[in-house]
Every structure is written in C-alpha cells, then in structure tokens.
Specification:
Helix content is 11%, strand content 25%. With 603 residues, it is of the alpha/beta class. InterPro entries: Leu-rich_rpt (IPR001611), Leu-rich_rpt_typical-subtyp (IPR003591), LRR_dom_sf (IPR032675), LRR_N_plant-typ (IPR013210), Plant_RL_S/T_kinase (IPR051716).
C-alpha cells in the first residue's frame, strides 16, 4: 500500500515528466537533423548563387550534387570543418547576374573574389554576416549603389577591392575601424565627398587606390603618418589644397600619384631626401609652382617622374639627369634653358639605359639642344621637344635612337636641313618638325620610314619636289606639307597612298599642273587641302571617288571649267572652297544641288 502511495506521490510531483522526456528526445533529433543539414548548407547556398547567374556554363557547370563540394572549381574548404567553404574565387569567369544574398550564409568564408566579371546590382547587405571575411574583391564588375553599412561587421577585413564599378556615395568613415585593413581599392567608380580622417587610424594600411572618382577636399594629413603606407593613387579627382608635409617623410612610400586634381603649392627643397623607396611620382595636371627641387635626385629608385601640366619655373637641375627613369615628363610648364649648363641634365641622362619616354614639350626651353641627346637610351621610344624656343640644327646623330616610334621637333626655331640620317629611324610612326625654319630638300631617306603613320613638315622653308620615295609610306594616315616652297606637279606618289585616312595638306606651296587622276585612290581621306598653289586644268571627276571627304579646299589656284556634277554625290562633304579660280557656273547643276551654291564662291 505504501508502494502504491509512493508511486502516486511521484506521479503528482512530476506530472509532465513524459512530456519533458519527449521534448528532450525531439530536441536531440532536431540537433542531429540540423547537423546533417549544416553539412549541406554551404553546398545549397552555392547552388543558389549558381542559379542567380545568367551564364551557368564554364566553371559553374561543374557545380552539382554529384561531386564533392570541396572539389568544385573555385571553391576551397576548411581542413578542420569539412564541407565549410573558406574561399570562393571566381575571378574572370564571365559571370553575369546579381550576387545572391545567400552568399552571406557562407559564414566560414575568409576570401571572396568575384572580380572581373559582369555582375550587376548592389552589394548585398548579407556580406556583413561573414564574420571571418578577410579579403573581399568585387572589382571590375557592373555593381552600383552605395557600400552596404553591414560590411562594417566584417571586422577582420584585410583588403577591400571594389574598383572599376559604378558605385556611388561617400567613402565610409567606419573603414577606419578595421584594425587589420591593409588594402583599399575604390578607383574608377563614382564616389563623392572627402577622404575620411578616420583612415589615418589604419596603422597597417599599405595601399590606397581612389583614382578616377569625384572626391574632393584636402588630402588628410594623418595618412602621411602611416608608416606602412606604400601605394597612394588619388589621381583624377577634385582634391585641392597642398600635399601634406607628412607625405614627404614617408620612407615606406613606393608610389604617389595625384595626377589631374586641383592641388597647388611648391615642392619642398628636400623632397627626395626621405623617400628612398619612391618609384612613381606623378604630379601632372595640377597647379604646382616653384622650381623642381634638385633633391628629387636622392630618390634614386624613381621609375616614373611626371610633373607635366603645372606651373613649374626655372631650369631643370642637372642632378635630375642622374636619375634613371623609364618615364620622364616635364610637358607644359614654364621651365627655361638658355645655356649649355641648363641642358646638362640631358647629358647626364645618357647614362640611363632604360629611359623609354622623354617629354620636354611646351615649355620655354631655349638655346641649342645638346648633341648628347643622340646618346640617350637605346630603349627610347618617344622624344618630344616641340613647342619650345630651341634653335640650332637637328643633331645628325639622332639616328642613333633606333628604337624611336615618335619624334616631335615641331614649333621651335631649328634651322638648317633635315638630316638624311633621319631615314635610319625605321621604327618611327610619328615624325613632326613643323613650324621651324628648316630649309633645303626633304631627304629621300624619309621613304625608309615604312611604319610611319603621321608626318608633319608644314610651315618651314623646304623647297624642290617631294621625294618619290614617299610612295613607300604605305601606312601613312596624315601628311602635312603646308606653307613651304615645294615645287613641281602634285606628287602622284602621295595620291597613290590609299592608307591616307585623315588629312593630306599640300596647300600654300608652288605646285603646278592639274590634279592627277590618282586622287581617286584617296577613298578613306577626310581632309584634302591643295589651296594656294598654281594648279590649273579642270577639277577631275575622279575626285568624287573620295567618298570619305568632309573638307575639300581647292581655292586660290587657276582651275577652270565647271564643277563636275559628280561632286554632288559626295554625301559627306561639308566644306568645299573654290574661290579665286576661273571656274564656270553651271546653273542647272547648281539648282539641282543647292548646297554647292551655298558652299562655294565663283569669284
């Protein structure tokens, strides 16, 4: 009896015990089920990502349930936690579509690289659910919108690469809260606003690429205190003010680019003293003033130096020539030279064997260019000294620079003849020496320049017939001989160059005779100028074969007869000048093609 009472007592004390046991069992089953589900969770989420892509061929075609998730291309799994994805690298796979929010469920993910695809839409906020994420690369896609604020939850981030998209908004100030952040690439987007001061807190920061946005304001001084910072590219924005002095003491700095901004001020006299690792200094297209410091020469690792399109004055320090850059541009400043000493930097540069681009054009450099220019690097491809005040003769030894593809002497005060040796530069594609005081014949050796695309000889005192060897220039697209003293008939060898597609200018010389029928070969030409000569005869019907012509100048000659009716078939022709000839009006043709009457004068 006592036993029965005891059992009743127990039953009354624990009336819900069976239900609790049942709940416990169900919980165990549920946990086991969840564990089993988790083993496939990452696989399911990746298949959802695949389904969101418009193009599922290529690398994604191997993503299916018949193979192990960890063997899928582009997928890397954890060694410790099997079937958990730690890295997803689908760079350059031709993917298009949107990034599905399910990507945020790959909570073991440390590396996410979807760069160089055609992904659209916004960056999903679910990326902020990836607590282990260290490297995020979504660069070179078609993403738009602002950077999701949820990303600030990814506190372990070391690199953020979002460049080359259509992203907008401001650079988040909370970027400064990532203690491990080393790399920020936001270039080629539509970001606005300023650089947050908080980025100065990122003691591990090594790379900042913010070029080609719409950023403004000043460069934060705190960035110059980051001892690990090596690469800074702020080009093509709207930054103003001066470069913080702290930047000139950054011994870690390798690249500093601020091209195309609104920066001003003078460079410090000790600029290169504390920049032993500097390789790229790009200051072009700003408003810098003052002289170029000789101390730049202390940055002996300089590979690219660009101070173009500023307001620098004074002479180029000789010490600059002791650098050995690949790229050196002083284009469009107010630099001067009058004496041989002022050109000494060129002589020093002859010791540099890797100089490839050397641009001095559009300054106030005078005096004579030293003959040592002919001893510059055999690697030199581009030499621009145009738009200065240089006098004297073109150095005969220029032919030593056999690697030149572009040579520009235009708009100076060069005298004498064009050296025959110039024909030895058989890699030339662009050759310009217009607007000088050169005399004599054009050397027949120009015909050796068979890769030449553009030839500018206008506004000199050249004389005689054009060399027949010019017929060899089968790649030529532009040729200008304007305002010289060339004589003889129009050069058939030029009119046979069907490659001429932009301009042929023979105007204001002393050419005589008719327009040769070979003019019909110029089917690609847009601009034909033969005004201001002593040409005669009728305008040939063959000229109507030049269907690409936009502008045809035949004025100030002695053409006679009537305008050929075939000219009216030149549908692209906008400008036709025929005045100061003895052409005869044909009223019926003019009435049929009224545009001719409006475009020309018969007087």
């Amino acid at each position: 009896m006592a036993s029965v009472t005891s059992r009743k007592s127990m039953s009354s004390m624990f009336p819900a015990l069976p239900l609790l046991l049942l709940a416990y069992v169900l919980q165990l089953v549920s946990c086991a089920s969840a564990t089993m589900s988790n083993n496939k969770t990452d696989e399911d989420f990746l298949l959802e990502f695949k389904a969101s892509m418009s193009q599922q061929q290529g690398i994604l075609s191997a993503w299916n349930t018949s193979s192990d998730l960890c063997h899928w291309p582009g997928v890397r799994c954890s060694r410790k936690h099997k079937d958990r994805v730690t890295a997803l690298n689908l760079s350059s796979q031709g993917l298009s579509g949107t990034i599905t929010p399910s990507i945020g469920n790959l909570t073991f993910l440390r590396i996410l690289d979807l760069s160089s695809n055609k992904l659209q839409g916004e960056i999903p906020s679910s990326i902020g659910n990836l607590p282990r994420l260290q490297h995020l690369n979504l660069s070179n896609n078609l993403l738009h919108g602002e950077i999701t604020t949820q990303l600030k939850n990814c506190s372990l981030l070391e690199s953020i690469k979002l460049d080359s998209n259509w992203l907008t908004g401001e650079i988040p100030s909370w970027f400064g809260g990532f203690p491990n952040l080393k790399t920020i690439h936001l270039a080629k987007n539509n970001f606005t606003g300023i650089i947050p001061q908080s980025l100065g807190n990122l003691s591990s920061l090594q790379e900042i690429f913010f070029a080609r946005n719409h950023l403004e304001g000043t460069i934060p001084e705190g960035l110059g205190d980051l001892n690990s910072l090596m690469y800074v590219d702020l080009g093509e924005n709207h930054f103003s003010g001066t470069i913080p002095k702290t930047f000139y003491n950054m011994s870690s700095l390798i690249e500093f680019r601020v091209t195309m901004n609104e920066l001003h001020g003078m460079l410090p006299h000790d600029l290169g003293v504390h920049l032993p690792n500097l390789q790229y200094l790009r200051l072009g297209m700003n408003h810098f003033t003052g002289s170029l410091p000789a101390s730049v020469a202390n940055a002996t690792k300089i590979y690219s130096l660009d101070i173009s399109f500023n307001n620098f004055t004074g002479s180029v320090p000789p010490e600059i020539g002791k650098l050995c850059p690949d790229f050196l541009s002083f284009d469009t400043n107010q630099l001067t030279a009058t004496t041989a000493q002022d050109w000494k930097f060129v002589t020093f540069l002859t010791n540099c064997t890797r100089l490839r681009i050397f641009d001095l054009q559009d300054n106030s450099l005078g005096g004579m260019v030293p003959s040592s220019v002919a001893n510059l690097s055999a690697q030199l491809q581009i030499l621009f000294v145009g738009y200065n005040e240089i006098s004297g003769k073109i150095p005969f030894g220029i032919s030593n620079l056999a690697g030149l593809t572009q040579l520009q002497f235009s708009n100076n005060r060069f005298t004498g003849v064009l050296p025959d040796s110039i024909g030895m530069l058989n890699s030339l594609q662009v050759l310009g020496f217009s607007n000088n005081k050169l005399t004599g014949l054009l050397p027949s050796s120009l015909g050796n320049l068979t890769q030449l695309l553009r030839l500018y000889t206008d506004n000199n005192y050249f004389e005689g017939p054009l060399p027949t060897s010019l017929r060899n220039l089968q790649e030529l697209t532009v040729a200008t001989f304007r305002h010289n003293k060339f004589t003889g008939s129009l050069p058939i060898q030029i009119f046979n160059l069907s490659s001429l597609s932009f301009a042929l200018d023979l105007s204001y010389n002393y050419f005589v005779g008719p327009i040769p029928p070979e003019v019909s070969s110029l089917t690609k030409l847009a601009y034909l100028y033969i005004a201001g000569n002593n040409l005669s005869g009728s305008i040939p019907d063959a000229i109507s074969n030049c269907q690409s012509l936009i502008d045809l100048r035949l004025d100030i000659n002695s053409f006679n007869g009537s305008i050929p009716p075939s000219i009216s078939k030149m549908k692209g022709l906008i400008i036709l000048t025929l005045y100061n000839n003895t052409l005869r009006r044909n009223s019926s043709r003019v009435r049929s093609h009224g545009w001719i009457e409006r475009a020309v004068s018969f007087t």
